[in-house]
């Protein structure tokens, strides 16, 4: 105990909080960051570095290193994301083929690699070589017949079940956050939400391994969405190595935005599309500096993947196509029809998938994730094997559907009846009547389309890594190829019709069915995700079809219009709302005529607002207030009578400050006065040391008046990324509006359940 006279001479003790202490400025799990404070802290840090850089050469070098650290992080993200994507692609190829057979000369070779190395492979039978043996040939020395088929069928199912069981077990035991696509959570994290462990090292490792397993198992899912999650895990890991990013959550999110771009870059081989995807779809705050860094990260990632060359075609993508026929204006009608189909499929998928996921969350089904994965895998494998279009990997299926039928194609889809007198160049084959192989392929594709539509609804959202891009593209590509073949045959048999007469003469190569598959794929992907600009860019980077931008744009815009007519939410936003994440979507419109006073707390009849006073509460009073409430922060007022606002103190920082004061300052006891002013209050003699907490006080909290329209308040929360704002009238505190209050009010105005917003 000391008297007031002694107290005045011990300023260094009272002001120990003028120096930062551990964990100040950090956030608790499942809470939202304060964007304004993070921005202010980064500005202060930068100002300090700039002023110090003039003092010595060493400080100048340190300032240069700080400036270049962002580019170094981008380089490291690009290198690791590209390497992981290449390894995943190679491993998926091998393990997918492992379900059907094995390479005797080198068991780690996929079917294609095995036959590349063989000297006995002919061009006509390029998929057959002595070194590659199906399981029936290896085990019972039979390649044909019922017993060989049944054995191969059985082993296909067993491998699929083995892969899926291993994947779901790894996720459940080691990294529960490795399940799903990851994009809804990435969007939420980039908007300022904290989910600790979601981008951790264990999540990165397990998601990479299990992604290979689930894609190889033949389930109706893709690896493209999860690759964005993997790249963001890389971004989080490398940003933790640099204090500039590890100590500032706002700066860390700039890195994660760029990492998302690198993820799409390696997923599709589309660096520009990746940058646009990050800008259009996932990022919340995207300054110009982040645009350049995203571009660089996507470039490095694409270059790294190209160096690994996982597809063996010296290209970044599996779906590279070269069409030799231009498109014609009359074809815009079927392209728009495919856009309508894509929009309807997107709406159907979102509604059915969300209904199933909600059922999974609210019933006993959610308690048995392993059993659910095993059952869906078994159903998928049993139904998929008999149909050649569902047996193969979805990426290979899309590649075949995109392909143009050249003279050397051996696919069933290219089984046309050739004119024996044809003497045209190889690249300019005219439209021909469909042969029996094409008709067989059409009904097999129709069955595959129905199967994919149904099974994808139940697969997406299970407790395994699951992307949606590739299954959506497969649905659209199958529908598009069937429409393309239909238009091609119509043009061939009825070339004298008025719609074909001007551009489709007999013997001409008029219609390219592969182009319709490409347009259908874009339409269905757009219907599910509601992407537009980035989708078109990804599609033409993915296929190399630069001159087909207009058909892709027409289909993407049509699918978005049709899908938006039934509901504005894409699949990712729908899953964000299903999980109750506090995501304030920039695309949502708020047009209701409510005021801040209608939303603020406390409302009429509720207990008064919990506040701190500037110099009249003891440490015990503050600790009691913290213990009895669960608020994230407290307004600080002059006194409870005047309620004049001074500032705002965060709950976490109050707890840390008092804890540190008790450890480092002997005079602080339970009845010590806590003050937030510059000078200590006048205290009677023999009073304990007061505790100065001005350093943790936000002296400029964002405030609005009670008559501010909620439309303006919502806009402020979106654009400034606020956690809360205080409601005042003539400087007197009336209440508080948090982000959760805003989201609940918006849900209420949209006739939705306001209690669905679960997190702060």
CATH topology of the largest domain: Clc chloride channel
Question: What is the distance, rounded to the nearest whole angstrom, between the alpha carbons of the first and last residues?
Answer: 41 Å
Please state the overall shape, judged from the principal axes of the Cα atoms. Answer: elongated
- The DSSP helix count reads 30
Number of strands: 12
The class by helix and strand makeup works out as: mainly alpha
What is the CATH-assigned architecture of the largest domain? Orthogonal Bundle
What is the class of the largest domain in the CATH system? Mainly Alpha
Give the % helix: 55-70%
Q: In order across it, which strands form the biggest sheet?
A: 3-5-6-9
Q: Mean pLDDT, nearest integer?
A: 86
How many strands, which pairing sense, and closed or not: the largest β-sheet? Answer: 4 strands, mixed
GO molecular function, one term: ATP binding
Organism: Nyctibius bracteatus
Membrane topology: Multi-pass membrane protein
Keywords: Antiport, ATP-binding, CBS domain, Chloride, Endosome, Ion transport, Membrane, Nucleotide-binding, Repeat, Transmembrane, Transmembrane helix, Transport
